[in-house]
Amino acid sequence: MNLLHIWPERPEIQGSLVTVRFELEDDNGKRKRLWYRLPAAQREAISDQCDSFVLAALFYAMHTPADLYVHGAVSPSLLRNLEEYQAIWRSWLPQEYQRIEIRAEVEQEPAPACGDAAIMAFSGGLDSAFTARRHRSGQAGRQQENIQAGMILHGFDIPLKSQAAFDHAHDRARKMLDSLGMETIPLATNLRSLGGEFANTHATVLASCLSLLQKRFQAGLIANSEPNQNLIYPWALVFGSTSLTDPYLSSQTFSILHDGANFNRFDKTMLVADWPEALRYLRVCIGRDPDRRVRNCCRCEKCISNILTFRALGLGLPPCFEQDVRNRQILLMKFSYPRDFYYQDEVAAKSYYYGEILKLARRRELRQTWITALRLAIAANRLLATARRFI
Amino acid sequence: MWAMANLHIWPEGPAIQNDQIEMSFTLEEASGERQRVWYRCSAEHQPALSASCDPYVLAALFVAMQQKADLVVHGQASPSLLKNLSEYQAAWACWRPERYAAIEISAEIEQESDRKPARRALTSFSGGVDSAFTAWRHANGLAGRQNVALQAGLMVHGFDIRLNQPEVFGRAAVKSQRILESIGLKLITMSSNLKKTGAQFEHAHAALLASCMMLLQGGYDCGLIASSYPYNGLEVLWGSNPLTDPMLSSAAFSILHDGTAFNRLEKTQAIAAWPAAIQDLRVCLHGEERDENCCRCEKCVRTILGFRVLGLGLPASFKQDVGLLQVLRVKKFGSLVSYRSILAEARARRLRQPWVYALHWATFVNQTRSLLKTGLRRKHD
What we know:
Chain A is α/β, with parallel strands linked by helices. Chain A has helices at 51-63, 76-92, 126-136, 163-179, 198-211, 234-237, 265-272, 276-281, 290-293, 301-312, 327-331, 346-363, 369-390, and strands at residues 2-8, 12-14, 17-25, 31-39, 66-74, 102-107, 117-121, 146-154, 183-189, 219-223, 255-259. The longest helix of chain A has 22 residues, at 369-390. The model of chain A has no long low-confidence stretch (mean pLDDT 93). Chain B is an alpha/beta fold. Chain B has eleven helices and ten strands. Chain B has a ten-stranded mixed sheet with strand order 5-4-1-2-3-8-7-6-9-10, with helices on both faces. Classes of the chains: A alpha/beta, B alpha/beta. Chain A binds chain B through residues 76, 79-80, 83-84, 87-88, 90-92, 141-143, 227-229, 231-232, 237, 243-244, 247, 261-262, and chain B through 79, 82-83, 86-87, 90-91, 93-95, 144-146, 230-232, 234, 236-237, 242-243, 246, 260-261.
C-alpha cells in the first residue's frame, strides 16, 4: 500500500486573516498544499491537533489508495470512528474506495473546549436555516445545542475564484444569523482541490473545517439534507452526508452532530416560514453560474423545487426568489444536478420528492395547472431515464 | 397527579428465590391495566444488576410509542439515555408514522448511572452466525480499533425460544456455553416476559435486547448487538440497525451495533476455523424446537448454502444437507443480499453445480414476486 504523509504547519497570521496549512506528501515526494483561511479573531480557537487534516485527506487516501501517516497528534477516538466510516464507504462503493490505515506520531485526546458552545455549517440554504432556527428558538427538545456560530465556506459550493459571489452569499448568511443572535465565521479553503466525488466527500470537508475550531466549540452540526424517512431507498442511503455516517466523523472531544434527520423539507419550510430574514435571504440555488447562484436563479431544478414547496404549502413566493416559476419551466425540468451534487439515482430521488409535493397538493385539495405540469414532468423524466437505461 | 394518558413505570425491588434473582417493574397502561414485566437470572449476577430504571424505559418504549402515551418513570433514569431516545423515537415515528408516535419520557429523578472504571463488555448471543462472529472477532482481538473487552455473552429465554419451553432453552444454552467457553467467554442466561408487553418484536427486538443487557450495567459498560444486515444491504426498518441501535445508549452504558461491515458470507468464513461454533451453531427460527436446526427453513437453507459455496461442506450443527428441490422452493427470502453474495461467490469460484442454477432461479422468482408486490402496494396507495 502506498503511503501519504500529512505535514502540519504553524498557523500564520496576515492582516485580519489567519491561515492554517498542511501538506500531503506522496511516496514520490510530490506535495500538495492545503489551507484554511479564516478571520484572525478565531486564532485562539484553532486546534493544535491534526484531526481536521485527517478528515480532509481521508477520501483522497481511500481512493488512491494509500495509508496515511500523520506527523502530529490525532485523537484515537477519531481514528476508531474513521475505521467504521471507511468500512461503510468500502461496503457501498468497493470499486471507488479501499480501507486504509491511519497512523499518527502522537495519539492523544485534546483537552475539551470549555463550556457547551457549538458551531454549525451554514450555507444559507433551507436545511441549515432550519437547524439554526430550531436550536436558537429552543425547539430541539432534548437535542438542544448551544449553537453560537455559523460557518460559511468559500471553496465549497462557491468556487474560490468567485470572490464577489462569496461576499454576497456571506452577507446574506450574516443577515440571517445576526437575526438569530449568532456569529458568522467565513472560512475559505482549497480542500476541494484534492478532487474526488464531492457528493460523497462533502461531509468530511465540512467536518474538517468545523473541527478546526475545537478549542472553542465542543460540537459541530451538519444540517441534514436527506431525511431518515428516505433512507429506506438506496439512492438516499449512499450519499455523502447522512445520519448514519456523519457521527463517525466525531472524536471524543468534538462531536459531529447530524441535525434534523427526522424532518422532511415541508417541516423545515414551515419552521422558517415566519422568519422574515430567512424568507428574504435563503440561498438554495445550484445553477451553473456561481454569481447568479447566490441570488437564486429561479430557473434551476433546486430553485423550482423550493418555489413549488412554498407554493404547495400555501406560503406564496418568498422574497428570496425574484420571480415565480411558470408551468413551461416545470414541464421542461430535467431531474439532474450539476456534477458535484448528485445522487446515485437522481431521477428516483427527484421523482420521489416531487411525488411528495403532489401528495401534499392533493391533501390540500389544490387544483391548479402547475400540478398537472409537475405530474407530466415526473412522467417524462422517468420515461427518459428508463429509455436511457435501456439504450 | 399524573394524567391518565400516560404509561407509568413502577420499579420493584429485586427478589431472590433459590439461586435465581428477579428484577421487575409494573407497567401501568393508560387504561389503568397493569402488567408486570420481569427479568430472571442467576443470583451470582446480583452485583452487576442495576437499580436504574434505564432498562425498563427501553422495555416500555415501543409500547408507549404504539399507544401514543407519554412515559412516566417512578425512579431514576439517565438524561443521556432520554436524549438519545428522543432521536430514536423520532426515527421510528418518521419511518412508521401510522404505528408509532414520538412521546415524552419524564423521570422522577434524572441522573446518570455511575460509570465503571474498567471497561467490560457483553454481547447478546443467540448462537447464530452473526453473534458467533461478533464474539469471535472481539475475543480474538480481530476488530482493530473497534475491539472491546468482551467478557460474556447474554442469551435471553423468552425471545426466540418460548418461555414454556425451558428444556429447549436449556439445551440451546448448553450449546451456546460450549461455543463461548471455547474462546474464554462466560455465558449469562436470562429469562424475561418482555415479548409479552405487546411491542412488535420485528421493530422492538433491539430495544428489548438492550434492555436486558443494560440491566447488567453494574458489571458492564458496553453491550454489543451483532448486525443482521451489511452496510450494502441495509434494512433500516428492521428493529436492529446501525443507525438506531447506538441511540439506545446512555453515558454509562453504550450499545454498539457490531459487524455491519461484513456480510453473512464473510462472517461464515471467519468462524469456519472455529470448531466449537461449527459444532453447535444454532440459526433456525422456524423449527418447533429451536435448539436444533431444522435444515428446511429459509434461514437454515441460507446458512448451509453459505458454507457450501465457501467449500466448507456441511457443518456438524446441521443434521442433513439441502436438496435441489429445497433450494428451488425457498420462499420469502429473509435477506436477498445474502443470496446475491452466495451467487457472486459461486461465480467467482466458477461453481457450475445444479444447486447454483436452482438458487439463481429461486432468486429470480423471489425478486419478481417482491417487485410485483411493491408495484401492487404502490398502486393501492
